[in-house]
């Protein structure tokens, strides 16, 4: 995959580093020559110096052959403009953009940005995560049954080497996805082995949230 990232700040650099570590081709566009120099030094020659709303700069970045454009600048107008350019002029399949203002999230969607990221909502969720049961995060309620929720939970030390079949899960709880500590993602069967540091996505009745927490984080500890 070839990704063009507009904005070489902390977010853009982190996304670029992650994509490169997973074997993807990355080009970063940033107006600050010092930022480009720092990125080129730490990640290789990946940066194009210029304005991401300039079609000629996006051309230099290879946007015409990009699979995705990711806008990570602090300015919503810049993020919106470069995403629209990528989609409409260069035919990029997918655009992802940070939206610093919550008021702009719906506008971004209306204008065809595939994945607008509400920074405020993200921060609120992280604060909620810090306030909830040791990282147990409610992702969403199921639309057809408000008594069921999707949860994300990290696994504690008591899960080391244990298959899913050995967990005494409450009735109605379904482990639907595991994001391994090594980055691998898989659907857990009964014989799937879990490890501390893995994250599990589960569907659970609301009244079993605490039970699931105790099994995954507290109840399995020696």
Ranges where pLDDT stays below 50 over 5 or more residues in a row are none
Number of domains: 2
Specify the CATH architecture of the largest domain. Answer: 3-Layer(aba) Sandwich
Determine and state the CATH class of the largest domain. Alpha Beta
Main sheet: strand order: 3-2-1-4-5-6
**Helix content bin:** 25-40%
The number of helical segments is 7
Largest sheet: 6 strands, parallel
| Fourth-level CATH superfamily of the largest domain | NAD(P)-binding Rossmann-like Domain
Shape: elongated
Looking at how many chains there are and whether they match, the oligomeric state comes to: single chain
Number of strands: 13
Looking at the structure, the CATH topology of the largest domain is Rossmann fold
Order of helices and strands: EHEHEHEHEHEHEEEEEEEH
Mean pLDDT: 82
Strand content of the residues, in percent?
A: 25-35%
Distance between the termini: 43 Å
């Amino acid at each position: 995959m070839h990704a063009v990232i507009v904005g070489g700040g902390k977010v853009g650099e982190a996304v670029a580093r992650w994509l490169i570590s997973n074997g993807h081709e990355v080009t970063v566009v940033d107006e600050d020559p010092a930022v480009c120099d720092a990125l080129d030094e730490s990640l290789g020659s990946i940066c194009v110096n210029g304005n991401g709303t300039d079609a000629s700069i996006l051309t230099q970045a290879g946007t015409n052959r990009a699979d995705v454009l990711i806008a990570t600048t602090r300015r919503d107008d810049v993020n919106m403009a470069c995403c629209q350019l990528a989609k409409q002029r260069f035919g990029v399949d997918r655009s992802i953009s940070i939206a610093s203002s919550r008021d702009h999230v719906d506008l971004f969607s209306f204008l065809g940005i595939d994945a607008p990221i509400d920074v405020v909502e993200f921060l609120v969720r992280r604060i909620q995560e810090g306030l909830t049961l040791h990282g147990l995060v409610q992702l969403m309620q199921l639309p057809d049954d408000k008594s069921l929720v999707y949860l994300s939970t990290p696994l504690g030390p008591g899960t080391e080497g244990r298959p899913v079949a050995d967990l005494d899960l409450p009735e109605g709880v379904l482990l639907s996805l595991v994001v391994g500590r090594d980055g691998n993602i898989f659907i857990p069967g009964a014989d799937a082995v879990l490890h501390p540091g893995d994250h599990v996505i589960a569907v659970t009745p609301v009244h079993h949230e605490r039970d699931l927490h105790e099994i995954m984080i507290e109840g399995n500890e020696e």
